[in-house]
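User: What would this chain look like folded?
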Amino acid sequence: MDIPITGLIFHSPNSNLDSEHSHVLYLTSWDGRPLHKHHFSGVTSFNVGHEHRYAGTTKPAPSGVPHTHEYFTVTSFDDGHKHEIRGVTGPAIALPDGGHYHKFHGVTTVNGSHPHSHKYSGNTSPSS
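Assistant: Here's the prediction, encoded as structure tokens.
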């Protein structure tokens, strides 16, 4: 099965370091549908006397079809440590203007001098 994609290919600046070379591919559409991303940010739960801030951008997904996005970021450095946040958003939630957003939630990785994790949740930015 052939799936048409469009994108841009950039030559890797480190390609002359070894006998093989590589390129970076940035997809702009998948099966004729443009790809899009969402921003997300928030504050974790307050645990062990502190909280963390986080912000990031989801991985791209096709527009105009049911979809979710993977996401990953690292929290702010508070109380001497940070945590990783990763997961998959919920499905697209339609907005009256034709755009959509996604809900996300989860638990951070465990870290800190007193090992612990934090809960987080929120909504992505809208997309049109």
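Residues 34-123 form one domain. If you want, I can go into more detail on any region.
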